[in-house]
Amino acid sequence: MAQGRQKPNILITGTPGTGKTTTCSLLSDATQLRHINIGELVKEKNLHDGWDDEFDCHIINEDLVCDELEEMMEVGGNIVDYHGCDFFPERWFDCVVVLQTDNSVLYDRLSSRGYMGTKLSNNIECEIFQVLLEEAKSSYPEEIVMPLRSDCVDDISGNVTTLVDWIKNWRPIS
User: What is d(CA 94, CA 46) in angstroms, rounded to the nearest whole number?
Assistant: First the structure.
């Protein structure tokens, strides 16, 4: 996994609204690892196959995204921020964090972002059924998957501290 890398790669995933971008930004500030927001990268570099009107988002081209990230991920020192995880190569990540949020908190967060109808209900159901946790466990070795609560500012702060400690203790495979 980490052969040749001097810094780890971390994937922070979770249902939209669980605090991925906030957590990644704070963690990047604390560690100087590069924060890669996949949604922003897709927009910036046109790594998509058009627009999905029903879900009000780009249809990402997973192959283009992986091609764009390959060299950065080989070097290491990245925090990848995305709500999915099953299309990234397993070898890229040393830790896969799945942020989880109480459904009532998540509902309020998503509603305040303007999520409605199918987009809102699908994301709430995804969280209820722990779809992203199961996806992470089936895509990566279970020992690198770390579920973390993300209901409030204190949770986010604690998660950043936990991850900073994890990074300090990380050692590359020789």
Answer: 28
